[in-house]
Amino acid sequence: MTKQEQLHGILKKLKQALPELRSIVIASTDGLPIAHNAADAPRVAAMAATALGLGKRIGQTAELGSLQETIVRGDQGYFVIYAAGDKGVLAVSAPADANLGLIHLEARGCAGRLAQILEEVIE
Amino acid sequence: MEPLKIVIAGPVGAGKSTIIRTLSETEVVDTDAFASEDIGKKTTTVAMDYGTLHLGDQLLYLFGTPGQDRFDFMWDVLSEGALGLLLLIRGDRPEDFVPARRLLDYITSRHSIPYVLGVTRQDQPPVWEPEEVAVFFGVPAERVVGLNAKDPRSAIGPLLRLLELLIENK
After folding, report:
1. How confident is the model over B25-47, as a mean pLDDT?
2. From CA B89, how far away is CA A122, in angstroms rounded?
3. Smallest Cα–Cα separation from A21: which of A113, A102, A111?
4. Which letter, b or e, does each residue of B1-12 get, where b requires 16 or more Cβ atoms within 10 Å of its Cβ?
5. Rounded distance, CA B109 to CA A7, Å?
6. How many domains, in total, are found in chain A?
7. Global pTM?
8. CATH, residue A98
9. Is A50 on the interface with B (CB under 8 A)?
10. Which value does ipTM take for this structure?
11. Which residue from B31, B37, B48 is facing A32, i.e. has the nearest CB?
């Protein structure tokens, strides 16, 4: 299986586990889309990288340890950006009535697997 | 005296993060991420750089932007409330001049603020000189200052010029 197939496999599994997700974007930490099911992936990838990068820096200053995720919450939904190792970002968009705990459970596991694959893809 | 918020923009690799690291009197807030594209360096700014600097009694807040077009939303975010713009351009990379011109128009059309163009790498000839860059951009020569972003005495030049412009405009 190629890396791209593995990445799409991860994307598909996450979508199956959490059908309520509006979109999923896997990106590099410098904001380029790698795999996604979003219409506006280039923009989402850049914004996700910015939010995660700033979150990491805030985490350093506030001594929060290694960053896991940055959450944007509006009254109509969530946008959660997970760190996937040093090189990857996993961003998901979900409606307000979604179960955030369940999203974390699935997406954090997914981000861990992504981290391994991306470490080999991006050199 | 009120602190002045200055935005430092420009294409990738122009020296935006470098000038803030060179000049800031306080610990720099940076947001470097691993660069997955070939941009001639290992890391790139994805959100912002932040530092502070006194010019005489005047305190400046320096906000550096990411360089890539895909981060253009950050140009807007960081330009909000800014009183001056320093646009950095690499003097040895004329292919960046046209994108830099677009970037200048992008910011100044949305935020009506005085600007100065800083032409970096003046210590590494052959480079375009400030006068030549002024002609290329079609802007008055006093708006363009040459510098070496790694040298504190040189890097402060364009900010002094920007401060002069701000005082003139008052």
Report:
1. 96
2. 28
3. A102
4. eeebbbbbbbbb
5. 41
6. 1
7. 0.94
8. 3.30.450.30
9. yes
10. 0.90
11. B37
Q: How far apart are CA B38 and CA A24, in angstroms?
A: 26
| Domain boundaries, position A66 | 3-121
In degrees and rounded to multiples of 5, residue B15 shows phi and psi of 115, 20
Q: Domain B4-169 belongs to what topology? A: Rossmann fold (3.40.50)
State whether A45 and B35 contact (CB < 8 Å).
no
pLDDT of A123 > 70? The answer is no
d(C-alpha A90, C-alpha A29), whole Å: 9
Torsion-angle region of A19 (φ positive above 0: left; ψ -120 to 50: alpha; else: beta) = alpha
Would you tell me which residues 31-90 of chain B have a C-beta closer than 8 angstroms to some C-beta of chain A? 31-37, 44, 46-48, 66, 68, 70-71, 73-74
**pLDDT at res. B1:** 84
- Cβ neighbors of A92 (< 8 A, separation 6 or more) are A14, A18, A21, A23, A24, A25, A78, A79, A80, A82, A103, A107
Q: Report the C-alpha gap between B74 and A110 in whole angstroms.
A: 28
CA distance A109 to A69: 12
Note whether B47 and B25 are within 8 A (CB). Answer: no
**Residue A49 with chain B: CB contacts under 8 Å:** 33, 46
At what angle are helices A3-17 and A100-121 packed, to 10 degrees?
180
Percent over 70 (pLDDT), chain B = 100
Model confidence band, residue A111 (pLDDT cutoffs 50, 70, 90): very high
Which residues, 6+ apart, have CB-to-CB distance to B167 below 8 Å? none
pLDDT digits (tens, 9 = 90+) for B107-149: 999 999 999 999 999 999 999 999 999 999 999 999 999 999 9
- pLDDT for A119 equals 85
Can you give the residue ranges of every domain in chain B?
4-169
